[in-house]
Design goal:
Elements lengths: L1 E4 L2 E9 L9 H12 L2 E6 L9 H17 L5 E7 L6 H7 L3 E4 L6 H9 L4 E6 L7 H6 L4 E4 L12 H20 L2
Protein name: Alpha/beta hydrolase
Length: 183
Amino acid sequence: MTDRHHGDPDRVAIILPGGGYTPARPLLHLARVVLAHHGWSVQELWWTPPDTGDLDERATWVVGQAVAAVEAESAKRVMLVGKSLGSLAAPVAAERGLPAIWFTPLLFHPTVVDALGATEAPTQLIGGGGDHSWDPRLADDLGLPCLELPGADHALENADDPVRSAENLVRVTRCLHGFVGGL
């Protein structure tokens, strides 16, 4: 299922959620708000990923979902915004030269790392220092703009500090505002 939020029909951002992190959750909701503020139309994918423990099978499924969403667009500019599982679509962004924002990218998955290393399009990475999928040295080595939130978990929250979690959302929103405004 997809939801569409209208802005400029020639600029469309496609939101690829996580396995259990929907477009209604704070990070993706704020991404939509920032994109709309900058005039982008936003297509939110609402999905139920295959129930398999095989991450490569899930990657194939995510890539298929991303390709179908991109190919359904007639916009001149398309951007991908993905959270966790959605970052498995990084090869789609890299191959098509699409700008991207990746929240908590799966930096342990070789296709994600290879795609991020190969991309020539503007790409923003956002991760948490306490997240198992984030590798700060690898993120730095990729040479892409990175925002790392110290101690933040995979939801970019600090479980023992709700105020710090809210502050993380402010930092992320500022980062997104600067990135999207610079495109």
